[in-house]
Amino acid sequence: MSASVVTSLPGPASRRLLEQQERDESSARTYPRHTPIAVAGGQGSYLHDVDGNRFLDFLSGAGVLALGHGNPELIAAAQAQLNVATHMLDFPTEAKSEFSTRLLGMLPEAMRDRMKIHFCGPTGADGIDAALKLCKTATGRADVISFHGGFHGSTQSTLAITGLRGSKEHLHNLLPGTTFFPYSYCFKCPLALNPDSCQVNCVRYLENLLADPNGGVRLPAAVVLEMVQGEGGVVPARAEFVTELRRITRERNIPLVVDEVQTGCGRTGTWYAFEQYGIEPDVIVSSKALGGGHPASVIIYDERLDGWAPGAHTGTFRGNQLAFAAGAALMRIVERDDVLAHVREIGEFLRAGLDALQLNHAIGPMIGEVRGRGLMLGVELNPLGSWTASEVAGRVRMAALRRGLLFELAGRDDCVARFLPPLNLSRGEAQEALDILGAAFAEVSAEALGGAHVGRQDGSHEKEGIHV
Ligand code: PLP
Q1: 152 CB less than 6 Å from ligand 1?
Q2: Which of 260, 233, 184 is closest to 377 using CA atoms?
Q3: Which domain holds residue 373?
Q4: Mind listing the pLDDT tens digit for each residue in 315-372?
Q5: Which atom of ligand 1 has the smallest separation from the CA of 154?
Protein backbone atom coordinates (compact mmCIF):
# COMPACT_ATOMS: atom_id res chain seq x y z
CA MET A 1 0.00 0.00 0.00
CA SER A 2 1.11 3.57 -0.52
CA ALA A 3 -0.33 7.05 -0.26
CA SER A 4 -2.47 8.18 -3.14
CA VAL A 5 -4.27 11.49 -3.57
CA VAL A 6 -6.58 11.40 -6.56
CA THR A 7 -8.73 14.52 -6.05
CA SER A 8 -8.18 18.14 -5.20
CA LEU A 9 -8.52 18.76 -1.47
CA PRO A 10 -11.14 18.68 -0.25
CA GLY A 11 -12.66 16.20 -2.68
CA PRO A 12 -16.37 16.56 -3.47
CA ALA A 13 -17.64 14.05 -0.90
CA SER A 14 -15.40 15.53 1.80
CA ARG A 15 -16.55 19.00 0.88
CA ARG A 16 -20.19 18.04 1.50
CA LEU A 17 -19.42 16.63 4.96
CA LEU A 18 -17.14 19.54 5.83
CA GLU A 19 -19.90 21.98 4.90
CA GLN A 20 -22.38 20.09 7.06
CA GLN A 21 -19.91 20.07 9.92
CA GLU A 22 -19.45 23.80 9.59
CA ARG A 23 -23.23 24.27 9.79
CA ASP A 24 -23.77 21.86 12.70
CA GLU A 25 -20.71 22.11 14.90
CA SER A 26 -19.09 24.77 16.99
CA SER A 27 -16.51 27.17 15.70
CA ALA A 28 -14.03 25.59 18.12
CA ARG A 29 -13.50 22.65 15.73
CA THR A 30 -9.87 22.40 14.64
CA TYR A 31 -8.39 19.61 12.54
CA PRO A 32 -10.64 19.86 9.48
CA ARG A 33 -9.94 23.58 9.23
CA HIS A 34 -6.39 22.95 8.15
CA THR A 35 -6.66 19.35 6.95
CA PRO A 36 -9.73 19.53 4.71
CA ILE A 37 -10.84 15.92 4.51
CA ALA A 38 -13.73 13.81 5.80
CA VAL A 39 -12.62 10.41 7.00
CA ALA A 40 -13.91 7.08 5.73
CA GLY A 41 -11.65 4.84 7.81
CA GLY A 42 -8.16 3.52 7.91
CA GLN A 43 -5.93 0.51 7.61
CA GLY A 44 -2.57 0.16 9.30
CA SER A 45 -0.58 3.36 8.82
CA TYR A 46 -2.99 4.77 6.23
CA LEU A 47 -6.14 6.81 6.62
CA HIS A 48 -8.72 6.98 3.82
CA ASP A 49 -10.97 9.91 3.10
CA VAL A 50 -14.46 9.65 1.64
CA ASP A 51 -13.15 10.61 -1.81
CA GLY A 52 -10.87 7.61 -2.13
CA ASN A 53 -7.67 9.46 -1.16
CA ARG A 54 -5.20 7.56 0.98
CA PHE A 55 -2.89 9.35 3.40
CA LEU A 56 0.04 8.08 5.38
CA ASP A 57 -1.19 9.01 8.83
CA PHE A 58 1.46 10.72 10.96
CA LEU A 59 -1.19 12.10 13.29
CA SER A 60 -2.56 8.74 14.50
CA GLY A 61 -5.59 10.29 16.17
CA ALA A 62 -3.28 12.64 18.13
CA GLY A 63 -1.28 9.65 19.31
CA VAL A 64 -4.21 7.43 20.30
CA LEU A 65 -3.82 4.83 17.55
CA ALA A 66 -0.52 3.33 18.70
CA LEU A 67 -0.74 0.38 16.31
CA GLY A 68 -2.38 2.30 13.48
CA HIS A 69 -5.86 1.87 12.10
CA GLY A 70 -7.91 -1.29 12.40
CA ASN A 71 -5.38 -3.46 14.20
CA PRO A 72 -7.05 -6.91 14.06
CA GLU A 73 -5.86 -8.02 17.51
CA LEU A 74 -7.07 -4.86 19.24
CA ILE A 75 -10.39 -5.14 17.42
CA ALA A 76 -10.76 -8.79 18.42
CA ALA A 77 -10.04 -7.98 22.07
CA ALA A 78 -12.65 -5.21 22.15
CA GLN A 79 -15.18 -7.32 20.22
CA ALA A 80 -14.83 -10.21 22.65
CA GLN A 81 -15.25 -7.84 25.57
CA LEU A 82 -18.40 -6.31 23.98
CA ASN A 83 -20.22 -9.56 24.70
CA VAL A 84 -19.10 -9.62 28.33
CA ALA A 85 -19.42 -6.09 29.69
CA THR A 86 -18.80 -2.59 28.41
CA HIS A 87 -19.18 -0.28 31.38
CA MET A 88 -18.86 -1.21 35.03
CA LEU A 89 -18.11 2.01 36.99
CA ASP A 90 -15.22 1.14 39.29
CA PHE A 91 -16.28 -2.42 40.10
CA PRO A 92 -13.52 -4.98 39.69
CA THR A 93 -13.79 -7.16 36.60
CA GLU A 94 -11.54 -9.73 34.95
CA ALA A 95 -10.78 -7.27 32.14
CA LYS A 96 -9.77 -4.59 34.62
CA SER A 97 -7.73 -7.04 36.63
CA GLU A 98 -5.63 -8.05 33.63
CA PHE A 99 -5.24 -4.43 32.57
CA SER A 100 -4.09 -3.28 36.03
CA THR A 101 -1.66 -6.17 36.41
CA ARG A 102 -0.12 -5.48 33.02
CA LEU A 103 -0.03 -1.72 33.59
CA LEU A 104 1.80 -2.06 36.90
CA GLY A 105 4.08 -4.58 35.20
CA MET A 106 5.08 -1.93 32.65
CA LEU A 107 6.58 0.22 35.43
CA PRO A 108 10.31 0.04 36.18
CA GLU A 109 10.73 -2.79 38.65
CA ALA A 110 11.79 -0.60 41.55
CA MET A 111 8.50 1.29 41.40
CA ARG A 112 6.04 -1.57 40.97
CA ASP A 113 5.26 -2.40 44.57
CA ARG A 114 4.61 1.09 45.79
CA MET A 115 2.47 2.51 43.02
CA LYS A 116 -1.33 2.58 42.97
CA ILE A 117 -3.70 3.18 40.08
CA HIS A 118 -6.72 5.43 39.99
CA PHE A 119 -9.00 5.19 36.96
CA CYS A 120 -10.20 8.62 35.92
CA GLY A 121 -12.72 9.94 33.42
CA PRO A 122 -11.51 9.01 29.95
CA THR A 123 -9.44 12.01 28.83
CA GLY A 124 -5.92 13.14 29.48
CA ALA A 125 -7.24 16.32 31.06
CA ASP A 126 -9.31 14.22 33.48
CA GLY A 127 -6.12 12.47 34.54
CA ILE A 128 -4.20 15.72 35.05
CA ASP A 129 -7.07 17.19 37.04
CA ALA A 130 -7.15 14.09 39.25
CA ALA A 131 -3.39 14.32 39.77
CA LEU A 132 -3.69 17.93 40.92
CA LYS A 133 -6.46 17.00 43.36
CA LEU A 134 -4.44 14.07 44.70
CA CYS A 135 -1.35 16.22 45.31
CA LYS A 136 -3.34 19.06 46.88
CA THR A 137 -4.98 16.64 49.26
CA ALA A 138 -1.75 14.88 50.12
CA THR A 139 0.29 18.04 50.74
CA GLY A 140 -2.40 20.39 52.03
CA ARG A 141 -0.94 22.97 49.65
CA ALA A 142 -2.70 24.96 46.97
CA ASP A 143 -0.33 26.01 44.20
CA VAL A 144 1.11 24.34 41.13
CA ILE A 145 4.30 24.85 39.15
CA SER A 146 4.26 24.17 35.44
CA PHE A 147 6.37 25.18 32.46
CA HIS A 148 6.36 27.55 29.53
CA GLY A 149 5.22 25.65 26.46
CA GLY A 150 3.53 22.92 28.49
CA PHE A 151 0.17 21.52 27.43
CA HIS A 152 -2.05 19.59 29.81
CA GLY A 153 -5.60 19.82 28.43
CA SER A 154 -8.51 22.10 27.66
CA THR A 155 -10.54 22.01 30.85
CA GLN A 156 -10.37 24.97 33.21
CA SER A 157 -7.82 23.48 35.62
CA THR A 158 -5.62 22.02 32.90
CA LEU A 159 -5.71 25.18 30.81
CA ALA A 160 -4.63 27.08 33.89
CA ILE A 161 -1.38 25.09 33.99
CA THR A 162 -0.98 25.11 30.19
CA GLY A 163 1.35 27.56 28.49
CA LEU A 164 -0.87 28.33 25.49
CA ARG A 165 -2.02 31.86 26.18
CA GLY A 166 -4.46 32.21 23.28
CA SER A 167 -6.83 29.53 24.54
CA LYS A 168 -7.29 31.24 27.89
CA GLU A 169 -7.03 34.88 26.92
CA HIS A 170 -10.75 35.43 27.46
CA LEU A 171 -11.34 32.95 30.25
CA HIS A 172 -11.31 34.30 33.73
CA ASN A 173 -11.17 32.51 37.07
CA LEU A 174 -9.18 29.50 35.99
CA LEU A 175 -7.40 27.50 38.68
CA PRO A 176 -5.53 30.15 40.66
CA GLY A 177 -2.01 29.71 42.00
CA THR A 178 -0.09 28.51 38.93
CA THR A 179 3.49 29.70 38.43
CA PHE A 180 5.18 29.06 35.09
CA PHE A 181 8.90 28.43 34.88
CA PRO A 182 11.18 28.21 31.86
CA TYR A 183 11.48 24.79 30.22
CA SER A 184 14.75 23.61 28.72
CA TYR A 185 13.80 24.72 25.22
CA CYS A 186 17.45 25.19 24.28
CA PHE A 187 16.86 25.96 20.59
CA LYS A 188 15.23 29.22 21.66
CA CYS A 189 16.44 29.48 25.23
CA PRO A 190 13.93 31.49 27.26
CA LEU A 191 16.88 32.90 29.24
CA ALA A 192 18.83 33.70 26.06
CA LEU A 193 21.71 31.46 27.15
CA ASN A 194 23.91 29.11 25.18
CA PRO A 195 23.12 25.46 26.03
CA ASP A 196 26.79 24.50 25.60
CA SER A 197 27.92 26.77 28.37
CA CYS A 198 24.87 27.33 30.59
CA GLN A 199 24.44 25.66 33.96
CA VAL A 200 20.86 24.57 33.18
CA ASN A 201 19.98 28.00 34.55
CA CYS A 202 16.28 27.41 33.83
CA VAL A 203 16.02 24.84 36.61
CA ARG A 204 18.53 26.74 38.75
CA TYR A 205 16.18 29.72 38.58
CA LEU A 206 13.33 27.54 39.86
CA GLU A 207 15.47 26.30 42.72
CA ASN A 208 16.59 29.82 43.66
CA LEU A 209 13.06 31.11 43.65
CA LEU A 210 11.77 28.32 45.86
CA ALA A 211 14.63 28.98 48.29
CA ASP A 212 14.17 32.75 48.26
CA PRO A 213 12.01 33.95 51.19
CA ASN A 214 11.30 37.05 49.12
CA GLY A 215 10.76 35.13 45.87
CA GLY A 216 6.98 35.32 46.09
CA VAL A 217 6.41 31.65 45.18
CA ARG A 218 4.86 29.41 47.82
CA LEU A 219 5.79 25.77 48.17
CA PRO A 220 3.53 24.12 45.60
CA ALA A 221 1.31 21.04 45.84
CA ALA A 222 2.86 19.71 42.63
CA VAL A 223 5.27 20.31 39.79
CA VAL A 224 3.76 19.13 36.50
CA LEU A 225 6.18 18.23 33.71
CA GLU A 226 6.12 16.77 30.21
CA MET A 227 9.32 14.86 29.45
CA VAL A 228 8.90 15.83 25.80
CA GLN A 229 6.60 18.78 25.27
CA GLY A 230 4.22 17.75 22.50
CA GLU A 231 1.92 20.65 21.75
CA GLY A 232 4.77 22.92 22.84
CA GLY A 233 6.70 21.87 19.74
CA VAL A 234 8.19 18.41 20.34
CA VAL A 235 10.78 19.66 22.80
CA PRO A 236 12.54 16.93 24.80
CA ALA A 237 13.55 18.08 28.26
CA ARG A 238 17.29 18.24 28.71
CA ALA A 239 18.60 15.42 30.91
CA GLU A 240 20.13 17.65 33.62
CA PHE A 241 16.96 19.72 33.69
CA VAL A 242 14.96 16.66 34.66
CA THR A 243 17.42 15.14 37.13
CA GLU A 244 17.89 18.48 38.86
CA LEU A 245 14.15 19.04 38.99
CA ARG A 246 13.73 15.62 40.56
CA ARG A 247 16.38 16.42 43.18
CA ILE A 248 14.85 19.82 43.96
CA THR A 249 11.30 18.49 44.27
CA ARG A 250 12.42 15.54 46.38
CA GLU A 251 14.44 17.73 48.74
CA ARG A 252 11.42 19.97 49.25
CA ASN A 253 8.88 17.17 49.40
CA ILE A 254 7.01 18.43 46.33
CA PRO A 255 5.26 15.69 44.33
CA LEU A 256 6.57 15.51 40.77
CA VAL A 257 3.76 14.75 38.31
CA VAL A 258 4.90 13.58 34.89
CA ASP A 259 2.35 14.13 32.16
CA GLU A 260 2.86 11.08 29.94
CA VAL A 261 -0.47 11.52 28.18
CA GLN A 262 1.31 11.92 24.86
CA THR A 263 4.78 10.50 25.57
CA GLY A 264 3.52 7.36 27.29
CA CYS A 265 2.66 3.88 25.98
CA GLY A 266 5.86 3.48 24.00
CA ARG A 267 5.73 6.66 21.94
CA THR A 268 9.32 7.71 22.75
CA GLY A 269 10.87 4.22 22.67
CA THR A 270 10.37 3.27 26.31
CA TRP A 271 6.95 2.60 27.81
CA TYR A 272 7.22 5.90 29.69
CA ALA A 273 9.56 8.69 28.62
CA PHE A 274 10.69 9.35 32.21
CA GLU A 275 12.53 5.99 32.13
CA GLN A 276 15.07 7.54 29.75
CA TYR A 277 15.95 10.14 32.37
CA GLY A 278 16.64 7.69 35.20
CA ILE A 279 14.17 9.32 37.56
CA GLU A 280 11.19 8.04 39.53
CA PRO A 281 8.25 10.43 39.49
CA ASP A 282 5.60 10.52 42.23
CA VAL A 283 2.63 10.60 39.86
CA ILE A 284 2.32 9.42 36.25
CA VAL A 285 -0.62 10.50 34.12
CA SER A 286 -1.37 8.26 31.15
CA SER A 287 -4.14 8.35 28.55
CA LYS A 288 -4.38 8.60 24.72
CA ALA A 289 -2.97 5.23 23.50
CA LEU A 290 -3.52 3.55 26.85
CA GLY A 291 -6.92 2.05 26.00
CA GLY A 292 -5.81 0.45 22.72
CA GLY A 293 -7.84 3.01 20.77
CA HIS A 294 -10.63 3.37 23.33
CA PRO A 295 -10.90 6.21 25.84
CA ALA A 296 -8.99 5.57 29.07
CA SER A 297 -7.08 7.69 31.55
CA VAL A 298 -5.24 6.80 34.73
CA ILE A 299 -3.01 8.26 37.35
CA ILE A 300 -0.40 5.93 38.79
CA TYR A 301 1.03 7.29 41.99
CA ASP A 302 3.16 6.60 45.02
CA GLU A 303 0.95 5.13 47.72
CA ARG A 304 2.24 7.59 50.29
CA LEU A 305 0.18 10.24 48.45
CA ASP A 306 -3.01 8.23 48.90
CA GLY A 307 -4.78 10.51 51.33
CA TRP A 308 -8.04 10.25 49.44
CA ALA A 309 -11.27 9.39 51.24
CA PRO A 310 -13.73 6.99 49.55
CA GLY A 311 -15.38 8.83 46.66
CA ALA A 312 -12.81 11.64 46.68
CA HIS A 313 -12.47 11.33 42.93
CA THR A 314 -15.31 9.77 40.97
CA GLY A 315 -16.61 9.96 37.40
CA THR A 316 -19.16 7.84 35.55
CA PHE A 317 -16.87 6.86 32.69
CA ARG A 318 -14.01 5.42 34.69
CA GLY A 319 -14.71 1.79 33.98
CA ASN A 320 -14.43 1.42 30.22
CA GLN A 321 -14.15 -2.35 29.81
CA LEU A 322 -13.47 -2.15 26.07
CA ALA A 323 -10.48 0.07 26.81
CA PHE A 324 -9.28 -2.38 29.46
CA ALA A 325 -9.51 -5.31 27.03
CA ALA A 326 -7.92 -3.48 24.10
CA GLY A 327 -5.36 -1.76 26.34
CA ALA A 328 -4.29 -5.10 27.84
CA ALA A 329 -3.99 -6.47 24.30
CA LEU A 330 -1.85 -3.47 23.35
CA MET A 331 0.53 -4.14 26.25
CA ARG A 332 0.64 -7.84 25.33
CA ILE A 333 1.57 -6.98 21.74
CA VAL A 334 4.14 -4.39 22.80
CA GLU A 335 5.94 -7.06 24.84
CA ARG A 336 5.49 -9.93 22.40
CA ASP A 337 6.65 -8.00 19.32
CA ASP A 338 9.28 -5.88 21.10
CA VAL A 339 7.51 -2.81 19.79
CA LEU A 340 9.66 -0.51 21.93
CA ALA A 341 12.86 -1.65 20.18
CA HIS A 342 11.07 -1.14 16.86
CA VAL A 343 10.07 2.41 17.87
CA ARG A 344 13.70 3.20 18.69
CA GLU A 345 14.95 1.71 15.43
CA ILE A 346 12.41 3.30 13.09
CA GLY A 347 12.58 6.52 15.09
CA GLU A 348 16.34 6.68 14.44
CA PHE A 349 15.79 5.92 10.76
CA LEU A 350 13.20 8.69 10.44
CA ARG A 351 15.34 11.06 12.43
CA ALA A 352 18.36 10.37 10.23
CA GLY A 353 16.22 11.06 7.16
CA LEU A 354 15.04 14.37 8.63
CA ASP A 355 18.61 15.29 9.55
CA ALA A 356 19.61 14.57 5.96
CA LEU A 357 16.91 16.93 4.73
CA GLN A 358 18.39 19.61 6.95
CA LEU A 359 21.76 19.05 5.32
CA ASN A 360 20.27 19.36 1.83
CA HIS A 361 21.37 22.75 0.56
CA ALA A 362 18.00 23.53 -1.06
CA ILE A 363 15.92 22.62 1.98
CA GLY A 364 18.30 23.15 4.90
CA PRO A 365 17.76 26.90 5.36
CA MET A 366 14.08 26.39 6.14
CA ILE A 367 14.78 23.82 8.89
CA GLY A 368 15.72 25.26 12.24
CA GLU A 369 15.98 22.10 14.30
CA VAL A 370 15.07 18.42 14.06
CA ARG A 371 14.29 16.92 17.47
CA GLY A 372 12.33 14.37 19.41
CA ARG A 373 12.56 10.88 20.83
CA GLY A 374 11.45 7.57 19.38
CA LEU A 375 8.46 8.16 17.12
CA MET A 376 7.64 11.57 18.56
CA LEU A 377 9.56 13.77 16.17
CA GLY A 378 9.36 17.37 15.09
CA VAL A 379 10.95 19.82 12.70
CA GLU A 380 11.00 23.45 13.76
CA LEU A 381 10.78 25.65 10.68
CA ASN A 382 12.62 28.90 10.07
CA PRO A 383 11.13 31.98 8.47
CA LEU A 384 11.87 31.92 4.74
CA GLY A 385 11.63 34.69 2.16
CA SER A 386 8.78 36.91 3.26
CA TRP A 387 7.03 34.09 5.15
CA THR A 388 7.07 33.63 8.90
CA ALA A 389 8.04 30.24 10.32
CA SER A 390 4.38 29.41 10.94
CA GLU A 391 3.45 30.32 7.35
CA VAL A 392 6.24 28.09 6.14
CA ALA A 393 5.04 25.26 8.40
CA GLY A 394 1.43 25.66 7.24
CA ARG A 395 2.46 25.52 3.61
CA VAL A 396 4.65 22.47 4.20
CA ARG A 397 1.73 20.73 5.88
CA MET A 398 -0.54 21.44 2.90
CA ALA A 399 2.10 20.49 0.33
CA ALA A 400 2.66 17.20 2.16
CA LEU A 401 -1.08 16.53 2.47
CA ARG A 402 -1.51 16.96 -1.28
CA ARG A 403 1.14 14.29 -1.69
CA GLY A 404 -0.51 11.98 0.83
CA LEU A 405 1.15 12.64 4.19
CA LEU A 406 -0.97 13.84 7.08
CA PHE A 407 0.53 15.47 10.16
CA GLU A 408 -0.11 18.19 12.70
CA LEU A 409 1.71 21.38 13.62
CA ALA A 410 2.75 22.39 17.12
CA GLY A 411 4.95 24.88 18.95
CA ARG A 412 4.91 28.65 19.16
CA ASP A 413 2.49 29.92 16.51
CA ASP A 414 2.47 26.43 14.99
CA CYS A 415 6.00 26.62 13.60
CA VAL A 416 6.84 22.94 14.15
CA ALA A 417 5.88 20.02 11.89
CA ARG A 418 5.05 17.27 14.36
CA PHE A 419 5.12 13.58 13.55
CA LEU A 420 3.26 10.94 15.55
CA PRO A 421 3.18 7.90 13.26
CA PRO A 422 1.95 4.50 14.42
CA LEU A 423 4.49 2.69 16.58
CA ASN A 424 4.54 -0.25 14.16
CA LEU A 425 5.39 1.93 11.16
CA SER A 426 7.45 -0.01 8.65
CA ARG A 427 10.77 1.16 7.26
CA GLY A 428 9.19 1.42 3.80
CA GLU A 429 6.43 3.65 5.16
CA ALA A 430 8.98 5.80 6.97
CA GLN A 431 10.90 6.18 3.71
CA GLU A 432 7.69 7.09 1.89
CA ALA A 433 7.06 9.85 4.44
CA LEU A 434 10.62 11.14 4.03
CA ASP A 435 10.22 11.23 0.24
CA ILE A 436 6.97 13.16 0.54
CA LEU A 437 8.46 15.54 3.08
CA GLY A 438 11.51 16.13 0.90
CA ALA A 439 9.28 17.05 -2.04
CA ALA A 440 7.00 19.21 0.12
CA PHE A 441 9.92 21.08 1.69
CA ALA A 442 11.48 21.62 -1.73
CA GLU A 443 8.24 22.97 -3.18
CA VAL A 444 7.70 25.42 -0.32
CA SER A 445 11.33 26.49 -0.29
CA ALA A 446 11.26 27.20 -4.02
CA GLU A 447 8.00 29.13 -3.67
CA ALA A 448 9.30 31.18 -0.77
CA LEU A 449 12.55 32.09 -2.45
CA GLY A 450 11.66 32.07 -6.10
CA GLY A 451 8.05 33.21 -6.45
CA ALA A 452 4.87 31.20 -6.64
CA HIS A 453 5.24 29.68 -10.12
CA VAL A 454 6.77 26.38 -9.22
CA GLY A 455 5.39 23.29 -10.89
CA ARG A 456 4.46 20.37 -8.70
CA GLN A 457 6.03 17.09 -9.59
CA ASP A 458 3.34 14.99 -7.94
CA GLY A 459 0.60 15.72 -10.45
CA SER A 460 -1.66 16.98 -7.66
CA HIS A 461 -4.22 19.61 -8.46
CA GLU A 462 -3.40 23.27 -8.06
CA LYS A 463 -6.77 24.27 -6.70
CA GLU A 464 -7.77 23.45 -3.17
CA GLY A 465 -10.42 24.86 -0.94
CA ILE A 466 -8.22 25.86 1.93
CA HIS A 467 -5.11 27.95 1.91
CA VAL A 468 -3.13 28.04 5.08
N1 PLP B 1 -1.37 16.27 28.35
C2 PLP B 1 -0.70 16.20 27.20
C3 PLP B 1 0.79 16.14 27.24
C4 PLP B 1 -1.37 16.20 25.98
O5 PLP B 1 -0.68 16.14 24.84
C6 PLP B 1 -2.78 16.25 26.00
C7 PLP B 1 -3.53 16.26 24.72
O8 PLP B 1 -3.01 16.41 23.66
C9 PLP B 1 -3.44 16.31 27.23
C10 PLP B 1 -2.71 16.31 28.39
C11 PLP B 1 -4.93 16.39 27.27
O12 PLP B 1 -5.49 15.21 26.87
P13 PLP B 1 -7.02 15.20 26.38
O14 PLP B 1 -7.07 15.96 25.11
O15 PLP B 1 -7.34 13.75 26.20
O16 PLP B 1 -7.81 15.84 27.46
Answers
A1: yes
A2: 233
A3: 347-377
A4: 999 999 999 999 999 999 999 999 999 999 999 999 999 999 999 999 999 999 999 9
A5: 16
